[in-house]
Sequence to fold (168 residues):
Amino acid sequence: MDHQSISDQILAGLKAMPKRMKSPNAKTVTKGKHTERNIEVVTLAGFHSFTLIERQATLDPYNFSCGLIWKASKSQHVILARYNGSNHPHTNHIEGDEFEYSCHIHIATERYIEAGHKPEHYAQKTDRYSDLQGAIKCLLEDWNIEAPKKSIKKNQGMPEFIQSNLFV
Fold:
């Protein structure tokens, strides 16, 4: 599938599909002046796979980004969304609107693909988050990705009768 055949209907379908993290414990690595982590994500039905990306500058707390990349095929990956920090201005070229130094969410749109821009170039200003952890939470909610469950360990202060029922 090439970028030109991606419609808003396909994008909305990808957004709505229930997904889960396949590798929630992926390691964070330092690369130059930022840290990054890539987490494999799959649809519950198993038909589509994605990569959730996280990036955080080490020197600027407002320079962060997380996003979701769809693996449309072995050779084509499409950035569906990016949740950016407030460290830079952004201009939506088709509409001509600009905003400076605000957190913003990039989303892939058919209009920007047809106009020859990056699929996810269009962005909307947001006050839903102010740091990377908040951006990740919004991305998980918006893109229907099940957050990893925290494991309950035996003997974490629970009465014995509850433990015996949970850990059989």
In short: Confidence is low (pLDDT under 50) at residues 151-168.
